[in-house]
Amino acid sequence: MSNVFEIAGDISVFGFRAVTDLFRRPFEGGQIRQQLAEVGSKSLPLVVASGFALGAVLTLHTRSTLVTFGATAWIPTVQALAFFLEIGPLVTGLLVAGRVGSGIGAVLSNMRATEQIDALESLSVDSFKFLVVPRIVACTLALPILTLFLDFSGLLGGFVSEYATARTSFQLYIAQSFSAFEWSNFYAPTLKTAVFGFIIGTISAFLGYTTSEGADGVGRAATRSVVISSLLIILLDVLLIKFIFFMFPESAL
Amino acid sequence: MIVSDMIASSTTRAGVPAVAFDHVSKSFGAKHVLQDVTFDVHPGEALCVLGRSGTGKSVTLKLIVSLLKPDKGKIWIEHDEITRLGEAELSRVRRKLGFLFQDAALFDSLNLYENLALPLARLTNKTPQEVDFAVDRVLRQVGLAGDRRRMPSELSGGMRKRAGLARALVLEPRILLADEPSSGLDRITASEIDELLLSQKTEHKTALIIVTHDVRGARRVGDRILVLDQGRLIANGTAAEVEHSENEVARNLVGE
Fold first, then answer.
1. Which of A142, A201, A191 is nearest to A14 (CA)?
2. Cα–Cα distances in Å, from A122 out to A82, B64, B100?
3. How many other CB atoms are there within 10 angstroms of residue B86's CB atom?
4. Rounded CA separation B98/B171 (Å)
5. What burial letters (b/e) apply to A238-248, b meaning 16+ CB within 10 Å?
6. B211: chain A residues, CB-CB within 8 Å
7. B67, B83 in Cβ contact below 8 A?
8. Cα(A139)–Cα(A36) distance, integer angstroms
9. Which of A33, A111, A117, A122 has the most B C-beta neighbours within 10 Å, making it the best mutation to test the interface with B?
10. Cβ–Cβ gap A111/B108 under 8 Å
11. Distances in Å between the alpha carbon of A177 and those of A74, A86, A162, A174, B239?
12. Cβ separation B101–A118 shorter than 8 A
């Protein structure tokens, strides 16, 4: 048990160092842009496809239930609230933890095992600032944007499903989607994914950067990155929802 | 002999040592990797470090670059005692060093040109044209001028070693550290690497510290041979001196 607290402490110090190093020269703009492309652009197809499929499937399920109550007009509203409040942030967090978290863990542990991190240090390059900080920043910035893509592709998937079933017009679908929407339903859950991004970046970078298991540690770091990041995202989601309800009571439906 | 005496005596002999170890010890847990090791290397001199696997040879190099800290003793890079330096000062001292890693440790995500340009772009005030010129110069020196756009994964073992050497040389270091530069290479390619190291020593008066298992190469490149066994320094001298050493392990190693 004390080992768990020790690791939690190490990860906290690691994350804190990343935050403080972010504001120290050199600012590594090039590396951050490169990692944003890696985390953001390259995750986009997966996120959009998942959102679209989830939206379509969720609409089919919702319709089969609501039709018995004659409440099919509420499908777009339910769909939008479900996606913006919970499905979008959580699914995006888990998808990125799987795709990006494992990548960060594997890349950094491989760099450690093959002495590339030592090589950077021997060249007077601060490897933490060069490798870790940009990855954490990129995850933190990319997650809210990816979440929006998943939310809207989910709505699009829902619309396509509704159009195929009931020939609902696009304008009506969109108007219905946001009919019961508060502003806080949009930005509070979306911004909470920045915390998810920070968690994914910090956990994955910590496990990769600090590995001392050589080549064997590469696969292990990748797997652990996904498992621990995903678990923490799910647990933190509960806490953050409580926090959002406290800060924005109007978003508690 | 304390290091100041060593430096004083060395100064009268051949100036200030490029690198000096003064009673350095290093352990990992209960394992004593280096015990009370003292030696020095002068500019334009090549020191080859021999020994069985796990005797602290690579650790010696990592201590010089401050990738590891000694438990006891002092390490001097020219006039700087590096065990007491902070990160900013270490960064200044590291610029005097070039390090060829055992597997070259090229950055996977960067092509050959970018691997070499990275330290120049970050650590010098060179313009892009000057960086281009410096990279081309070193790539020509190691015979890889036509491969600047290739990724590390596209290079053969020998090419990777030469690329690693090029990166180690790109900042024109005064001290070059090489960790098993000929390991995994055929004899001809290993000789080519030895030639490059020799030319660096003779033409640029670079101090070389080469960790190797290749006795032939060590005899060819090294002015002196240092033998480590179980973390202790058991021989330090010319190949002929070590060959006639009283220590059997040293004699056997060099006499192979």
1. A201
2. 51, 10, 10
3. 7
4. 8
5. eebbeebeeeb
6. none
7. no
8. 7
9. A122
10. yes
11. 8, 15, 12, 5, 83
12. yes
pLDDT tens for chain A, 253 residues: list them: 678 888 899 999 999 999 999 998 888 888 999 999 999 999 999 999 999 999 999 999 988 888 888 788 888 898 899 999 999 999 999 999 999 999 999 999 999 999 999 999 999 889 999 999 999 999 999 999 999 999 999 999 999 999 998 888 899 989 888 887 777 778 888 889 999 999 999 999 999 999 887 777 888 888 999 999 999 999 999 999 888 888 877 766 5
Which residue in this structure is represented by tokens 């509704």?
A162
B86 touches chain A (CB under 8 A): no
Among residues B187, B186, B142, the alpha carbon closest in space to that of B164 is found at: B142
Counting the structural domains of chain B, the total is 1
Q: Any chain A CB within 8 A of the CB of B175? A: no
One DSSP character per residue, A200-224 reads HHHHHHHHHHT--STTHHHHHHHHH
B122: chain A residues, CB-CB within 8 Å: 26, 123-125
Strand partners, B19: B41, B77
For strands B175-179 and B207-211, give the pairing.
Answer: parallel
pTM across the whole model = 0.86
CATH number, domain with residue B69: 3.40.50.300
CA B37 – CA A199 distance, rounded (Å):
44
Amino acid at A54: L
Spans of all domains in chain A: 2-251
